[in-house]
């Protein structure tokens, strides 16, 4: 018998809740730690948070399919997280309010203590398993991978209601808490709230409600605003959040406030009327969301999120285990706001290839040119084989490759691994690359408005971004 609950429908009494068996996508080669990240970065880790600490390590935590434990892994590189050893910090209890689901952990260093926030509910089946509330565990030492973790307590939320997906950030010297919660009297599954912290589990003042799911893309399947994440850039605070059901309709929205505004005033925040990051059939990523932010080893902004590589889900999406951790570059628009583009899909991270005047190699509706276009049309995956030969794939046209055409022009053709699609990448320490044709040696792709094969090395240096 299925009881349909507020946001989570489930089979009542199922102590061992079913985990849907979904088709496993073809496994990509395991990335080496010195190579760049390959998506999916970590399989079956949803709600992923990557925390870059000043010890030089990246720490990754997230929800596990069994929802029964808190895990942590670390690496000196983002790519290395894929194969890093994972430690179980804490397991749900045998009974009580933290004996059932364990959701969406986040690691924070607060006043010198490692604290991990998470959402938890009781076990035992029935309606109670979704009595989700927010708790924290704390580490007894300086190394979160080696210390002992014990329960710090329950977050003292404004209401005794469905409460999850908390995050914390410091803004202008004050530490804030942002989270998702169901508010009595508002008929939604969860809304977004913010308040300064007095202590890790108590608020310094009454919370401000920042957003209620009301737009059509926020209420598909369930009325959800959850998983806030904050990025401070270019004189503003950008708070992304996730909306709708956790299937292919799941997506990111964004609130923006001026850095010097009173961020406890809801009027300081502007909600984007359209989602900023959604499912992409072209790249094969469905239900992208529950993001966090970090920077890569070169200090460049990185978006961390989860997404499946198939659309159809049998049963409740909450119990489909294949929300994998994914990462990609986060670029910015001319106005300084984040440009999320599209979820870039499985494989090595794509790059943009820029000519000396800043114009980009673009692919729009099957046409290759050098100029300007939406971000996703300027992203190309440089797929390199063991011999260092590169084929160049527009991320929106997975089955096609940049090809030297019979007339000597440059276009796209279905991936046939022909010499006309193979290039030798001559990379420089300055971050430029020349792409010599394997079919016509000593000729390379011109990095100019006129896309052609020209005698290397004249005008053939692309800046890789
Ligand atoms: O992944 C478990 C829960 O489902 C997360 O807390 C929430 O963000 C998601 O929708």
TrEMBL record:
Keyword Signal: yes
GO MF annotation terms: hydrolase activity, hydrolyzing O-glycosyl compounds
Residues in the signal sequence: 1-25
Keyword Glycosyltransferase belongs to the record: no
Domain of life from the UniProt record: Bacteria
Any matching Pfam family: Glyco_hydro_43
Family: Belongs to the glycosyl hydrolase 43 family.
Identification of the protein by name: Family 43 glycosylhydrolase
